[in-house]
Amino acid sequence: RFQQVQSMMYDLMEWRSQLLSGTLPKDELKELKQKVTSKIDYGNKILELDLIVRDEDGNILDPDKTNVISLFHAHEEATNKITERIKEEMQSKDQPDYASYSRMSSSPTHSLYVFVRNFVCRIGEDAELFMSLYDPQKLTIISENYLVRWGSRGFPKEIDMLNNLKVVFTDLGNKDLSRDKIYLVCQIVRVGRMDLKDSNSKKYTQGLRRPFGVAG
């Protein structure tokens, strides 16, 4: 049972990464969401948890807004699908699952937690800080950006975020840990005048985004 659930969890982690990547076409995205909900429902069944009934798009049906007959049919359909899945699993149980082994060895299992305490750089205007993980040998960014909006007075733009600027870079696999080096890079974008030297308010335009610096 444990190995069965473990294999399903690796599937879900892999599919979650694909969903978060934002690169899938609409039809593939819909298909993947259906695979995810199907896997969750199947897992609930073998763990003897409650059966969740869904509509065609995989959304959970609201019992307060769905009539009893529709709910009954949805339960029947969901039960039949899961029963079919269990039969398929039983038939393929004796065959070694090489795909599962390869997924287990390559699945993302590591995270990096970053807590931004302060940003010290005299700009005199608002700034946007983009933090990401960077492989200096392959000259490529290997994560999504974490955005912090920093005000001209030396505090976060959203003052309630003071001492609460935290981010977790997830889905880092063994491949990432074996990289020679990984840098945490911060790109600074100044938001304000075209040129910092502009002093006459009639001459300059407000709110322009200009590259200012990078640290890493």
From TrEMBL:
Gene3D superfamilies: Dedicator of cytokinesis N-terminal subdomain (1.20.1270.350). Coiled coil: none annotated. The gene is Dock2_1. GO terms for cellular component: cytoplasm; plasma membrane. GO terms for biological process: cell migration; myoblast fusion; small GTPase-mediated signal transduction. It holds the Pfam family DOCK_N. InterPro entries: DOCK, DOCK_N, DOCK_N_sub1. Residues 2-203 form the Dedicator of cytokinesis N-terminal domain. It comes from the Eukaryota. GO terms for molecular function: guanyl-nucleotide exchange factor activity; small GTPase binding. It comes from Burhinus bistriatus. PANTHER family: DEDICATOR OF CYTOKINESIS (PTHR45653), DEDICATOR OF CYTOKINESIS PROTEIN 2 (PTHR45653:SF6). This is DOCK2 protein.
